[in-house]
Amino acid sequence: MSDRQARKNINRCDDYFLISRHKELIKLDTKNNDSPNIILDLAVANKPFLEFLKGVIQSVDAYTNNQSTDKPSTSRSEEPKDTEQGEVQEAEVLD
Description:
- By secondary structure, the protein is α+β, with helices and mostly antiparallel strands.
- It has 2 domains: 1-33, no CATH class; 36-69, no CATH class.
- The protein has helices at 3-12, 37-45, 47-70, and strands at 17-22, 25-30.
- A two-stranded antiparallel sheet has the order 1-2.
- 0% of the residues are buried.
- The mean pLDDT is 77.
């Protein structure tokens, strides 16, 4: 979908769940609090998408477990205080 088509659909839709990335900053934008249900509805209706989500979660779990064994634990007080709710400050592409 082109940028123009995406903007047109967002302006006309009842609900949306948007994930965007610019360099290392990932942002989530939703129209209302029910927006994450879009992913759940899609996973129920589309088995390949459900399998994709399972693979993503397994990859995140494996990556998180490797990070926790490689690095000493840190306290949460070291995180930046000015983050917006739902915003990821750092992201890394997993191979």
